[in-house]
Write a structure and sequence with these properties.
single chain; Rossmann fold; Helicase, Ruva Protein, domain 3; 2 domains; 7-stranded mixed beta sheet; two-stranded antiparallel ribbon; 18% strand; binds S-adenosylmethionine
Length: 281
């Protein structure tokens, strides 16, 4: 049976280039091109966008993105063994795939992209959360990207979309939902990957909002949520003591009972708290 793009099937690519998966690089490959094309479609219309892909590996998702019509894909890969396989894809899609060899955590990624930009990746688990936090915390908002469509371990995906009072609710939910619309768009079992990881996975789609849902200084919001969730089972009057001053009065001034716990407070409450703290003499 032919592939979606006439290039060899991924199992053959892996065999030809001897791409035995390396655990330390988080290598769990997607080999079903129909599945990677489906993930590409979850990212929206790519025809007028540069797509940034982190960790293309043997190129399954890269091929999905190109076949689905991405204007251009910029793919950053740390493992030099994958580069010859990616060169073959670049040759099949002239002028539409640029491969950057290196560590995504070290490179100046926006410098290689022309807006509008969408980020789509089956992220290496060991750097996924760090990259997400960076993308969600740019020096100025809106950021250089329009949307993020990212594969995570299911547990991390649930933390991103969590609502108050749930077990997964915490700093990541606040950071993500403050300035994006975040939802899980696909669940994948371990067997979807080669080799199969121990955990289930999920694809999260985050669409940037033009402005934050509620005003707040990002650094102050980050400080308050870190303090509140570091001791999530404690009452806020106690977990926020480190803010100094009259913490009970601060909480009451924004309508939060001092006996409430972090997991009960919504995004609006944390933003109000951050604003009150900023305004405090
Ligand atoms: N996109 C491919 C797929 O879906 O089959 C591979 C995904 S695999 C989970 C993660 C990929 O990220 C691997 O190819 C790995 O070599 C690469 N990688 C790991 N750490 C990286 C880093 N810091 N910067 C860029 N790529 C990295």
């Amino acid at each position: 049976m032919g592939t979606i793009d006439g290039l060899p099937p991924l199992r053959e690519v892996i065999r030809t280039h001897d791409l035995v998966a390396k655990k330390q690089l988080g290598q769990n490959f997607l080999l079903d091109l129909n599945l990677t094309a489906k993930i590409a479609r979850m990212a929206g219309d790519l025809s007028a966008c540069d797509v940034l892909e982190i960790g293309p590996g043997p190129g399954g998702l890269t091929r999905g993105l190109l076949a689905e019509g991405a204007r251009r894909v910029v793919a950053v890969e740390k493992d030099p063994r994958c580069l010859p396989a990616l060169d073959e894809i670049a040759a099949a899609y002239p002028g539409r795939l640029s491969v950057l060899a290196g560590d995504a955590l070290e490179l100046d990624l926006p410098a290689h992209l022309t807006p509008p930009v969408r980020i789509v990746a089956n992220l290496p688990y060991n750097v996924g959360t760090e990259l997400l936090i960076r993308w969600l915390s740019p020096p100025v908002w809106p950021p250089f990207w329009e949307s993020l469509t990212l594969m995570f371990q299911k547990e991390v995906a649930e933390r991103i979309v969590a609502k108050p009072r749930g077990d997964h609710y915490g700093r990541l939910a606040i950071l993500a939902q403050w300035r994006t619309e975040a939802k899980i768009v696909m669940h994948l079992p371990p067997e979807a990957f080669t080799p199969a990881p121990k955990v289930h996975s999920a694809v999260v789609h985050l669409k940037r909002l033009a402005a934050p849902r509620y005003p707040a200084d990002p650094a102050v919001l980050s400080r308050v949520t870190a303090m509140a969730f570091n001791q999530r089972r404690k009452m806020l009057r106690s977990s926020l003591k480190g803010l100094g001053g009259d913490v009970e009065a601060l909480l009451e001034s924004v309508g939060i009972p001092p006996t409430a716990r972090a997991e009960e407070i919504g995004l609006d409450g944390f933003c109000a708290l951050a604003r009150a703290l900023t305004a405090r003499p």
